[in-house]
């Protein structure tokens, strides 16, 4: 575990340190497109954050190759080499798209090429565990189709949710944590060495996301762009493919002593690719809904719109930060709930706990305008939106240096009591230019400002 923590720390640190220079490079290179109608941010923000994430990935792999236990992953298979090849192609495609824009079909073709390169190097589904039957071998063609399809689905699912500050990075980080717990248990709990690459891939993903989220949380200073989101989706897919079809149920049966216990332990993988799909259940649902919605309307499935799940949360009244936290909550609930169900022997406890958490999530989801106010003792340590607001007249007195505010003498002078002296002076100058003496006074102009 210490070696994994070291790899995670190095990956996160390199990603964090590279993001600042990459941001300056993106601004200088002009990779800062104007705000579009479907965007949520209000001012142009540089992209190309995937460059820093790719640097963190390379640093983490370099550190892992020098450690005693993790270096065995490099010598026992070609998964690491395949990951770097596919991630490099996907990253380059994303950089081109962030800077100049790439057609949707060309982008899809590039995704399939990256997946094909990894399949050619050995990252492919070989067998599928089927309940009651066992491991069923698939032909090379079938394995290639399943692997390429999974990569394309994962990549576009992550790319579709990259619409709010910190949303994609946080949800991929949650998914990677859940996948790490599951694959780590298979490796060390059941001594299945084929699960080792998935453990390392999950740690690298967590480090990349944590290092980048420090710059990407609302308000974001830089976006990961397609160069980051597509690479994260590919890494999730590689982690899933590297473990799916390589876990022999007979090995776990020898540890558990019964086939019933084995079936329970293998719940997330007995149905092919179930666990990888549950850890990105929300992005996948958003992807499927978007494809159905656009196809039904006679549009291209790749046509952009402003009707994703995170957009709908904003439309019902949730703030930017709350919408992101809600998505985090549901992603964690589904991913860790699936892992917990595969670990514990008391499924009833897990179901009741998940039901209670679902109820809490629904209450928060249905109360978008509820904003709890923190106690006065801790207001200095919470975001401004959770602090108690001072009365408007008190704010005006503080702005004027605690000068007494003259009582309003008319309905037109009432708004002036709410303004600072600097604002009054500015409004007075504007009024003089328009022909009146002051705002709120008796003007001598034509009165068009009323």
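Sequence proposed for the structure above (450 residues):
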């Amino acid at each position: 575990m210490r070696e994994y923590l070291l790899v995670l720390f190095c990956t996160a640190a390199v990603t964090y340190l590279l993001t600042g220079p990459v941001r300056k490079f993106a601004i200088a290179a002009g990779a800062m497109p104007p705000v579009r109608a479907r965007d949520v941010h209000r001012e142009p923000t540089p992209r190309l954050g995937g460059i820093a994430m790719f640097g963190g990935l390379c640093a983490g792999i370099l550190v892992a190759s020098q450690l005693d236990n993790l270096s065995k992953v490099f010598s026992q298979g070609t998964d690491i080499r395949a990951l770097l090849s596919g991630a490099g192609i996907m990253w380059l495609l994303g950089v081109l798209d962030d800077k100049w824009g790439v057609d949707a079909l060309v982008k899809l073709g590039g995704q399939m090429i990256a997946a094909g390169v990894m399949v050619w190097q050995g990252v492919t589904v070989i067998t599928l565990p089927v309940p009651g039957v066992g491991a069923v071998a698939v032909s090379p063609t079938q394995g290639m189709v399943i692997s390429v399809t999974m990569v394309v689905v994962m990549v576009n699912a992550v790319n579709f949710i990259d619409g709010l500050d910190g949303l994609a990075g946080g949800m991929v980080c949650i998914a990677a944590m859940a996948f790490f717990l599951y694959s780590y248990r298979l490796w060390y709990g059941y001594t299945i060495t084929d699960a080792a690459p998935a453990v390392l891939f999950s740690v690298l993903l967590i480090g990349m996301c944590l290092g980048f989220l420090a710059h990407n949380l609302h308000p974001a200073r830089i976006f990961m762009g397609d160069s980051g989101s597509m690479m994260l989706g590919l890494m999730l897919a590689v982690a899933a493919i590297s473990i799916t079809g390589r876990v022999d149920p007979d090995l776990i049966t020898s540890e558990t002593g019964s086939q019933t216990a084995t079936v329970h332990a293998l719940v997330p993988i007995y149905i092919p690719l179930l666990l990888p799909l549950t850890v990105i259940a929300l992005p996948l649902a958003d992807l499927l809904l978007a494809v159905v919605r656009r196809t039904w309307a006679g549009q291209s499935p790749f046509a952009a719109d402003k009707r994703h799940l995170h957009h709908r949360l904003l439309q019902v009244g949730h703030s930017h930060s709350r919408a992101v936290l809600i998505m985090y909550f549901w992603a964690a609930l589904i991913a860790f709930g699936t892992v917990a169900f595969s670990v514990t022997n008391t499924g009833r406890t897990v179901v009741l706990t998940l039901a209670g958490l679902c109820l809490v999530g629904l209450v928060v989801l249905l109360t978008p305008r509820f904003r709890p106010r923190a106690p006065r003792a801790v207001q200095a340590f919470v975001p401004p939106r959770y602090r108690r607001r001072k009365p408007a007249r008190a704010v005006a007195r503080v702005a004027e240096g605690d000068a007494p505010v003259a009582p309003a003498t008319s309905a037109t002078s009432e708004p002036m009591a709410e303004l600072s002296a600097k604002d009054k002076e500015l409004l007075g100058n504007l009024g003089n230019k328009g022909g009146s003496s002051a705002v709120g006074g008796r003007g001598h102009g034509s009165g068009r400002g009323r």
